[in-house]
Amino acid sequence: MIRSKTSPSRAPFIRAASTASDFLWKRSAALLIPAAAAVFFYGPAALALFAASAAAAVLAERAMGFILKKPVPFQGGHALGIGLTLALMLPPGLPLWMAVLGAVFAVAVARDAFGGPGQAPLPPILAGFLFLAVSFPLEMRAVTDPVTGHAAAHGLAWLKDGVADSGPHLSRIFMTPQPGGAGMVFFPALAAAGLLLIFQRLVFWELPFLFLAASALTAFGFGEHPAAALAGSNAFAAFFLISEGMTAPHNRHGARFFALLAGFLAAALRQVSGAFDPSAAAVMMVSFLTPWLEEAGRTERGWAPPRGASA
Amino acid sequence: MRGIKLDGKKDPTLITWTIKRLRQPARVRIALRQGGRDLAVPCVRHDDSVKAGQVIALPADDFSTPLHASVSGKVMAVGTFAHPFLEDAQAIEIVGDGRGETAPGVGTERLGWESLDRAQLAPLFRQAGLVTMDEAMVPLHVLAQESLTARVRTLVINLCEPEPYVTSEQALAMSHALEIIQGAEILRKAFGAEKITAVLTEDKIQAAELLKSKIYFLKWGHVDVRVLPLVYPQGLDVPLAETLLERKLKLPAEWHRGGTPQDKGLALHRVFRSEGLEILNGASAFAAHEAIVLQKPLFERAVTVGGECVMEPKNLWAPLGLSFQDVFKAAKGLMRDPAKVIAGGPMQGRFQAGLEAMLVKGIPALLALPPEAAPDPAASACIHCGLCIDVCPENLSPVMITLASESGLYEEAASWNAADCIRCGNCTYICPSKRPMDALIDRAIHEQLNSESRL
Ligand code: SF4
Ligand code: SF4
To answer: Which of A138, B31, B93, B191 shows a CA-CA span of 20 to 30 A to B70?
Structure first.
């Protein structure tokens, strides 16, 4: 029989220039915008928080790499993203050692012990956050108003308090620094970072959009102003949590269901509990459904047919 | 269609439209098997003098075609030489005499060629050694015979040439537009097709206009020209057929199994034909014109010699059987050691381990790429960015197929329609984690086919 030549080197021979570490580093770079806003409003304490969490995440990764004898994936870009994102969700006054603990847990336990990036059932960032919320509920709840410096209710509850009957001032949502996770303090910073991610195509624009739309509708259903969906932790979740690739389903319909469901749940949870970050909790809960959503979002070929298909 | 805007890198070989002739080569080795399934038996002996275009080997079966000397000179030997696509191949070695003589009759116009009919054309195709001028190299007389029992509505002349670096079709269309149209008409008759559609991508708008002007001049109402958006893999035969038919095709198992290039090509042509299409490239139409009108058998072809390592990238008329070494020499040689030598384009072509292999009929380009252009990146874990999904022309989810295949879950991979993959290479190209998508998809499909054949 005549055999066709097989060769270890096969087409395609050319590759796109961008690498996964570029991808992850760019994501981390976008996170610096809300981080800068946090430092502006909370001062050096916030900076210390970010530095501690990011450094802890990166070092934990190195240590795990050493112990498990595995190379460091993505030149540290993935761990850095975890450390930074987690820090942005923490209250700015949290003791640094707690932040360090959370970051180490997220990277070393929630991610690497499960086999590395993409293998863990729960997104590492959310696992770290959950770990801290359970271990240190009081500290995690202690947020201050960035303007007055006094203890305050968490972002969305704060929003509710302030708008008792007259309906919220949109300016209160959009332009006033809000209490809550350090990185959620200033909406314009979050929006800028989100748009940057979308324009760099690091995030598929429909997901934040659907998440926020579902959230706004649900809020409206509960008698809130729909714009409340954009406040603090919700905008953060829309841009940085649901689109964190490893969480959402890998077919577009599935990802759409995921965003819608998480958006709905985020607004609904807020009604029943003002305690922790309801948006993060919503994303976390929906993450467990990923395999089913993936299944439900399947089309004949695995992916939605192109819209307005042309040649 | 989803796809990628690849950096074309076509300019260096398009400085002029002229396809350069090279000096008479010192030596050629003409493979007795061009595409794996065919076989020709030598009918010349050591020391015989031959002229270009003279028959040197006769077909061994109905599928095969005769072979012709591509230079004038003396037959040296029949030996085993490196083949670009097959593991090893017998070839006839001819040492050129530098005189460039052609066999009698070659190049003179055939009287009454316009009135040849379907029954007369197929044997002439065979005599001239015509094949599809892509890697498949399916003999045209075989396609013509098979088309007798099918209804071919449209002959598609595919001039899209979607791969970077490769410009031999474009140069041919710019320099020989009329010949391509007339060749297409000959092919149309041979396949009993009703009309001809020439298809180009939008970057070749000049060539499209040129073709249109020739068609206008000939007053042929049954020929039209279509220009498609430039997005890879548009212009490979399968996505092109899918665009023209406005639906997705089911690819045959023979094609996935991947025997010899000719087996794969034949299977694909059968699928196209069952949809009423016959798809051939511009070089095939040109070769048909040469063979039928000018009585010139297929012994040379236009080849793009390109890539960053080539001193003077250009399009050449290269005699078949020329070694890759000599092909590069004709472009002033290589200015640095290439990381990869590729027969064909960088998205679909074949890796060449050395420069000894000989040119066969189905090689439109020979590329020498440096490591920057053709890297061997290390793979890392999937970051679930979804880019591979965004670029898949078949609307598959390459990430799900490959993740399943990686963990040995071949049934799961099959349930994500791995078998609809057309191996365009887009997902491998785009993946930022540089995962070996193509190899994983291949593995998934082969496991699926194996388990199906066990049933
Ligand atoms: S492009 Fe690569 S990294 Fe991105 S989802 Fe696809 S397989 Fe994963
Ligand atoms: S899965 Fe197949 S068809 Fe889709 S991009 Fe990858 S190679 Fe191309």
So the answer is: B191
